[in-house]
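Re-run with default settings, no changes from the original entry. Doing this only to confirm the output is reproducible before filing.
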Amino acid sequence: DAQTLSVDVPKIVVNAEQIKSAEQIIANIAGGEASKPWVLLNPNASDMLPLRKWPTERFMELGKKFLGENSTCTLILTGAPSEKGSCEQIQKEFSSSRVISLAGHTTLVELMVIYSLSDLLITNDSGPGHFASMTNLKTIVMFGPEIPQLFVPLGENVHAIWKNLICSPCVN
């Protein structure tokens, strides 16, 4: 008889000052107010496990679909400070003022506030999916070699897409 594990995911609480500050960070990087909806793309994962990365070209294709199908959507690229250069390169390749890169421009707390203000996060199997589960942000986490049954972020707004590799769970 299998038991279902029930876990209450802690939620962050943000205040008006944090919201104003996060909106200012976005406005400064965007060169003005960034129109909604805000769709966050986290195209990177640790270089330690490249098999966990969905190809950058696919993130580009997906981002172009969002931009093409929603005339007010702002794509926000996220990543660690070490991913700043790659995210800025991706941003340039979009050639759109509706694409900005936050990689390396926020603290973790500021990023969590931005998560709470955003509409959707699409990420590889990495930390951002877990951080986002502490907000109400709708999140899509793409799994390659790992299995979502073990590693999916907890929370009701998380949807996992799994490649179901024959070796799963595997990292090589």
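The chain has six helices and six strands. The longest helix spans residues 16-30.
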